[in-house]
Design a protein that fits this description.
Family: Belongs to the xylose isomerase family.
CATH topology of the largest domain: TIM Barrel
Order of helices and strands: EEHEHHEHHEHEEHEEHEHHEHEHHHHH
Subcellular location: Cytoplasm
Oligomer: single chain
Shape: globular
GO molecular function: magnesium ion binding; xylose isomerase activity
InterPro entries: Xyl_isomerase-like_sf, Xyl_isomerase-like_TIM-brl, Xylose_isom_bac, Xylose_isomerase
CATH class of the largest domain: Alpha Beta
Structural class: alpha/beta
GO cellular component, one term: cytoplasm
């Protein structure tokens, strides 16, 4: 059965096309800096927002029209697999991501849940073998069910910790079965509401224990995906332990996880933490820990995780610049952790929204490549830090100076001459690369 029978495969038609179901900027075979756009961008589609999000919000009922709903949860789950791979093929997207509860109903027991997962992943694997589409990453949803009200690995209940561990084990079994390149931990409720009844160190120690168990189990079964942690500052927890990239890297280093874990960074999570997306990506690069990204954007007028499809060229340009500086994003990718707006409720909107995001990232890639080829940022930074190329600056960098010698130098140096950054002009020039 086709769920999008009136839609042909989405193709690149250029900026002059009037066809809304066509790419205007994303040309998979176009070569940019020695690689095709498809190789650079490594697009992925998120199963949760694409297949299970219904358009409801805290103030309104579901609005989305979805033709894959069946008479039972398992029938719906099977229909979703068919519809999902049709979407991936229509978009010519190479990767996808999912939580365990996205693909299969939990049922009445852990055993039933795992049996459901096995049945659905058999269907998914058959589709992967048929299409060549790959699993970018999977993860366990350890935040939605009431059992996780006080967290998963950070829970005060040892029984909850054990249940979470079982989900992670199954997640790694699935990852091996489907050839997953990465495995993500998102600590949706790994945090606290009040320190009055919380032992923060105890909880973080337990989170690290679960992570180390995951690494050990992966080695045991002969499957070593790139493990990723996805930072988020709040929502649902008031204080989450993986607040931002810097906080998460401190955790990784404290517990000796550097060799196994990198970061999966989301644009909307960055803004909720009070950062830009490029800041979070740059922090990760400083630690050689930029693993993968979730592509979306937030609404600056709304203080929650709106997960909008990315359409801001300024943001995608700076994000793609960080990826180019990183030497690429593989084995990670650019996963659209994005949901259509409540008013975009038709089936076709799922394709239109992804086209918009893919076109915007393609434009970002082209602009970032030009910035890199013309050394726009490199020249700015070279000039700004030029005082370290010779003289006292060069001696500081070579560790030849001390507090005493620098004091003596400063006493004799006289007035310090500074240069203006001309930052407004720089930002204006950056705009020239975006159009």
């Amino acid at each position: 059965m086709s769920y999008f029978s009136t839609v042909d495969k989405i193709k690149y038609e250029g900026v002059t096309t009037e066809n809304p179901l066509a790419f205007r900027h994303y040309n998979p075979s176009e070569v940019v800096m020695g690689k095709t756009m498809k190789e650079h961008l490594r697009f992925g589609v998120a199963y949760w927002h694409t297949m299970t999000q219904d358009g409801s919000d805290p103030f309104g009922s579901p609005t989305n029209i979805r033709t894959w709903e069946g008479s039972t949860p398992m029938e719906t789950a099977k229909n979703r697999v068919e519809a999902f791979f049709e979407i991936l093929e229509k978009l010519d997207v190479e990767f996808f991501c999912f939580h365990d509860v996205d693909i299969a109903p939990e049922g009445d027991s852990l055993e039933e849940f795992f049996n459901n997962i096995d049945e659905i992943t058999d269907l998914i694997k058959a589709k992967m073998d048929q299409t060549g589409i790959k699993l970018l990453w999977n993860t366990a949803n350890m935040f939605s069910h009431p059992r996780y009200v006080n967290g998963a690995a950070s829970s005060n209940s040892a029984e909850v910790f054990a249940y979470a561990a079982a989900q992670v084990k199954k997640g790694l079994d699935i990852s091996k079965k489907l050839g997953g390149a990465n495995y993500v931990f998102w600590g949706g409720r790994e945090g606290y509401e009040s320190l009055l009844n919380t032992d923060m160190k105890f909880e973080q120690d337990n989170i690290a224990r679960l992570f180390k168990m995951a690494v050990a189990y992966g080695e045991k079964i002969g499957h070593k995906p790139q493990f990723l942690i996805e930072p988020k500052p709040m929502e649902p927890s008031k204080h989450q332990y993986d607040f931002d990239a810097a906080t998460t890297m401190a955790f990784i280093q404290k517990y000796g996880l550097e060799g196994d874990f990198k970061l999966n960074l989301e644009a909307n999570h960055a803004t909720l933490a009070g950062h830009t997306f490029e800041h979070e990506m740059n922090v990760a690069r400083c630690y050689d820990a930029l693993g993968s990204i979730d592509a979306n954007q937030g609404d600056m007028l709304l203080g929650w995780d709106t997960d909008e499809f990315p359409t801001n060229i300024y943001d995608t340009t700076l994000a793609m610049y960080e990826i180019l500086e990183n030497g690429g994003i593989a084995p990670g990718g650019i996963n659209f952790d994005s949901k259509v707006r409540r008013s975009s409720f038709e089936m076709e909107d799922l394709l239109l929204a992804h086209i918009a995001g893919m076109d915007t990232f393609a434009r970002g890639l082209k602009a970032a490549a030009k910035l890199k080829e013309e050394r726009f940022f490199d020249d700015l930074k070279d000039k700004r830090y030029a005082s370290y190329n010779e003289g006292i600056g060069a001696r500081i960098l070579s560790d030849e100076e001390t507090l005493e010698s620098l004091t003596e130098y400063s006493m004799q140096n006289g007035d310090i001459k500074l240069e203006s950054s001309h930052l407004e002009f720089v930002k204006s020039r950056l705009n020239d690369y975006l159009v």
